TrEMBL record:
InterPro entries: MFS (IPR011701), MFS_dom (IPR020846), MFS_trans_sf (IPR036259), Proton-linked_MCT (IPR050327). Pfam families: MFS_1. One of its GO terms (molecular function) is monocarboxylic acid transmembrane transporter activity. Residues 30-472 form the Major facilitator superfamily (MFS) profile domain. It is a multi-pass membrane protein. GO terms for cellular component: membrane. This is Major facilitator superfamily (MFS) profile domain-containing protein. It comes from Mytilus galloprovincialis.
Length: 484
């Protein structure tokens, strides 16, 4: 009876230590927290097209110049990827997410006092973008670290919060603007973003399967359990040969050297500054990897066209006679279909028979085609159908990005690769909306901008075909060398 209690105590201790390992129960708490963080952050980000119309009316600037406000947030968010990646490595996902939420909140709150588009460039664009960068990367990395078997599905659920946020906040932002003006609405958005601090508080770091413990009772129970095993099994001492002694001494010496190196690294890490931390974690050597480079090129061109519908679709709809509420509702349609797309593609990508890279590539081609076809009809039903198709298939861009990276490079390089990838995505999202705005200012029509971004996104999907081609050529070369 006593032994049974001891075994139950040991198993309970083991169970507690297993809660926070990969694919453990706490991982789903992380998923829920990341989901809510995306609801709040992306809900603000992807409804900027509604505020964009207000900025045009307030500051009387051109569409291209005003579009810098909406492009600076995602542009900065992605461009600071290597920095947030280094900070995540150094301080953990929880700290980076909370700090990012505080910085983004400050950016929204300060924007209340904006007197020009240049003011909003700095406050809403750069400051909020830096904060969102910390939130975005920390959520992806934290979920990716807590899952292995169902990583695609977990990431799909977490980032689907983006679509939910867009669906919910598109009409909410419109109502807030109608009631309190754009300044009052943007101040309330600061309050929404502040709640991400609570989401980040749940980002507990993942632990190894064998968990260290200082609990004396747990150690005592383990000792009693081992003692009972000695009674059950006849464990006798055996003489040690000279060769075994040599092996033990050799292994101990190697272990000592490894311990010294580890201690030195630990000491350096403790005493280093944040600047030296960046230099250690900026793995720009990844750009010499042809596979990663192709993926970066694809992401850059996707990012150039990614935000165009979110920024310009409401304005295009209003130009064609739709009401302000109906034009905002188009973003809600993108949001809800985006939610289904991210979850569905996340689940499909986890199936063993599915080629994730092909799924990713084909979805981008469909998104690009939808953009090219957008100007062909101006009816409300047609634009609603476009919004549903675009939202559904663009969901793959976020939900499978980190999963594809793991497939291409391995999970141990995820944070560094994701940081670099986000930087190049930042360049694309920074330039995309202003370029489309200038195209509109020059032509007086949204047709050319949508043709332009549609072609870019189609190219981003097609260029991924070079990855399997490169792998095959590399395998063929290795086979030829081995054959010789």
């Amino acid at each position: 009876m006593k032994k049974q209690k001891e075994e139950n105590s040991v198993s309970k201790t083991n169970k507690i230590s297993q809660d926070n390992v990969k694919d453990g129960s706490w991982g789903w708490v992380i998923v829920a927290s990341a989901f809510m963080a995306h609801v709040l952050a992306d809900g603000m980000l992807f409804t900027l097209g509604i505020l964009y119309i207000e900025f045009l009316n307030e500051f009387k600037e051109g569409k291209g110049k005003t579009a810098w406000i909406t492009s600076l947030i995602p542009g900065t968010m992605f461009t600071v990827g290597p920095i947030t990646g280094a900070l995540t490595n150094r301080f953990g996902c929880r700290s980076v997410c909370i700090l990012g939420a505080l910085v983004a909140t400050a950016g929204f709150a300060i924007s209340y006092f904006a007197t020009s588009v240049y003011f909003l460039y700095c406050s809403l664009g750069i400051l909020t973008g830096i904060g969102f960068g910390g939130i975005f990367l920390s959520t992806l990395v934290c979920v990716g670290q807590h899952f292995e078997k169902r990583r695609s599905f977990a990431l799909g659920i977490s980032v689907s919060g983006s679509g939910v946020g867009t669906f919910v906040f598109a009409p909410v932002v419109r109502i807030l603007i109608d009631e309190y003006g754009w300044r009052g609405a943007i101040l309330m958005e600061a309050g929404f973003v502040l709640n991400i601090v609570l989401c980040g508080a749940f980002f507990r770091p993942v632990q190894n399967k064998i968990d260290k413990t200082n609990d004396k009772s747990a150690i005592r129970n383990e000792a009693i359990h081992l003692s009972s095993l000695e009674d059950k099994f006849d464990i006798k001492e055996k003489p040690i040969t000279n060769s075994q002694i040599f092996t033990i001494v050799k292994n101990e010496n190697e272990g000592l050297q490894a311990f010294k190196k580890e201690s030195a690294l630990s000491s350096d890490s403790t005493d280093s500054t944040v600047t030296s931390c960046f230099s250690r974690h900026f793995d720009f050597g990844l750009l010499t990897n042809p596979i990663f480079t192709i993926f970066v090129v694809s992401n850059y061109f996707t990012a150039l066209g990614f935000n165009t519908p979110y920024v310009y679709l409401p304005d295009r709809a209003e130009e064609k006679g739709m009401s302000q509420f109906d034009s905002a509702f188009l973003l809600s349609i993108i949001g809800i279909s985006n939610t289904f797309g991210r979850i569905i593609f996340g689940w499909i990508a986890d199936q063993k028979c599915v080629n994730r890279l092909l799924l990713y590539s084909m979805s981008l081609v469909i998104c690009g085609t939808a953009n090219v076809l957008n100007p062909f009809n101006d009816s409300k039903v047609y634009l609603m159908m476009y919004s549903a198709v675009y939202g559904m298939f663009i969901g793959v861009f976020v939900s499978l990005n980190s999963v594809i990276l793991v497939d291409l490079l391995g999970s141990e390089r995820l944070d560094k690769a994701l940081g670099l990838l986000m930087m190049f995505q930042g360049f694309g999202t920074l330039l995309g909306p202003p370029i489309c705005g200038w195209l509109y200012d020059g032509t007086g029509s949204y047709s050319i901008p949508f043709y332009f971004v549609g072609g870019l996104v189609i190219f981003s999907g097609v260029v991924l075909c070079f990855i399997p081609l490169y792998r095959r050529s590399k395998t063929r070369n290795l086979y030829d060398i081995s054959g010789e």
